[in-house]
Amino acid sequence: MLRAEGLRHAFGSVRALDDISFTLHPGQTLAVFGPNGAGKTTLLKVLAGLIRPQGGRAQIEGGRGAVGWIGHQPQLYAHLTVHENLRFWASLYDVPDGAVRRRAGDLLARLRLEAHRDRPVRALSRGLVQRVAIARALIHDPRVLLLDEPFTGLDRMAAEEFRRLLEEQVANGRATVLVTHNVEEGTELATDVAFMRAGRFVRLEPRAGRGAGRIADAYREAIADA
Amino acid sequence: MPDTLRHAWVIARKDLLVEFRSRTAILSVAVFTVLVLLVFNFGRDPTAVAAVDLAPSILWVTFTFAAMLTLNRAFQLELENQALDGLLLAPIGPRSLYLGKLLANLMFVAVVEAVGLPLFALFFNVSVLPVLPPLAGVIALATIGFVAVGTLFSAMTTRTRFAELLLPVLLLPFMIPPLIWAVLATAALLAGRPLSEAGGWLRLLGAYDIVFVTLAFFLFPATVDE
User: Fold this and answer.
1) Measured at the alpha carbon of residue B170, what is the angle toward residues B166 and B175, in degrees to the nearest 5?
2) Other CB atoms closer than 10 Å to residue B1's CB: what's the count?
3) CA distance A113 to A223
4) Test the B interface: residue of A77, A122, A130 with most B CBs within 10 Å
5) How far apart are CA B74 and CA B80, in angstroms?
6) DSSP structure class, residue A120
7) Rounded to whole angstroms, how far apart are CA atoms A140 and A105?
8) Cβ count within 10 A of residue A213
9) Residue of chain A whose Cα is closest to the Cα of B4
């Protein structure tokens, strides 16, 4: 469903990606942990096709239309309402009107945004905007999710609901790459974990039922050794 | 092609809705147009040069700079919240994005021209009503040409540090030919000369439109490629 082969990319003399390879099948979630500047965001942008890698290649079954993206910025128009934003993005993905209504209604309810449906995005708080960004990323029912620090700005309840939503997506066969510097956030959702530093995967392995504490220990050990 | 046009319309409609809600660009450009016409009106010596001789140049200088302000905002809007990344991720061709922006820009500039023309007639005591249909044709033909080029350059410059300065520097040389032809055609019409006298300029404007709309349409994907 998603394959990265020997991805390499540099910004000037800084190596952002250095021989990154992995494959994700339906239902798999790869959590990529790494400190700031490890190359996590670059990896997601290369996978999405927003950056053309200088070496290697990334393939996503279904192409760009199959990707749901949550990045550092919400990719929303501040002067449009929540629902207008969702409708706009759905139109670009050729989602039929009936399906847009159904999916938008469902996502707004799940993310507790119903009361904000007709409010302009500029009137929402940071946390609410992040929830709308999540709804935007899922409105076209993507098969592959690329998530960059998706829990940023979410309160505890919203983060829980989003985690449940992601678990459902994975159970329905979505493949997910989640990058974060926060081991606690990413571990529960992951089937596989990768520790990244200076553009390299210093370890890539199945989570194998380990909890956040053990993954955090493994992460510290791997990053210190690298 | 139907998909390209449909997606282009979705983008143009969104831009118009955002502008309708914010009213920032259209209001400032309309005010700018009024002010420029006022300055020219009070800055000229009516006894030295007849208004009808000066008026076509003033009309086109005003429209040119007003259009420039409008063009600057076309892609700035997409930088807010990194919406441009979202557009590039969506399964639409980059040419849909170009056509959508072109369409929205044409509508904005048309509104500004619709505000400016009556004021121009009022300030310079020029009778435009008897020649309104052919004059509207001249304005439309010239506007399509420079907005087509301007939309392309706006995409090229929007991610640079001095976009607002760079756009006029790049665009003005390309605007000179259609401006000259538009001024000559407008002068002929306002002087009450037969339409056939302006025919040559109109054909040149038409040819410019065909060449530059086509060129911009095909070159645009390179401007948004990483």
Assistant:
1) 135
2) 7
3) 39
4) A77
5) 11
6) B
7) 13
8) 11
9) A92
E strand residue ranges, chain A: 2-11, 14-24, 29-33, 55-60, 67-70, 144-148, 175-180, 192-197, 200-206
Whole-complex ipTM: 0.89
- Can you say how many angstroms the Cα of residue B2 is from the centroid of all Cα atoms in its chain? 25
Q: Which of residues 47-86 of B touch A (CB under 8 A)?
A: 77, 80-83, 85-86
Strands A144-148 and A67-70: parallel
Backbone angles phi, psi at A208, to 5 degrees: 55, 45
Strands A29-33 and A175-180: parallel
**B175 residue type, one letter:** M
In angstroms, the CA A150 to CA A130 distance is 8
Tens of pLDDT along chain A (226 residues) come to: 899 999 999 999 899 999 999 999 999 999 999 988 899 999 999 999 999 999 999 999 988 889 999 998 999 999 999 999 999 999 999 999 999 999 999 999 999 999 999 999 999 999 999 999 999 999 999 999 999 999 888 888 888 888 999 999 999 999 999 998 888 888 888 999 999 999 999 999 998 888 889 999 988 888 887 6
Q: Inter-chain contact B81–A91, Cβ cutoff 8 Å? A: no
Mean pLDDT of B126-142: 93
- State the Cα–Cα distance between residues A226 and A198, nearest whole angstrom: 9
Eight-class DSSP state of B161? T
Contact between residue A91 and residue B86 where contact means Cβ atoms under 8 Å apart: no
CA nearest to B33, candidates B106, B101, B110, B145? B110
Determine the distance from the C-alpha atom of residue A133 to the mean position of all C-alpha atoms in its chain, rounded to a whole number.
11
**How many residues in total does chain A contain?**
226
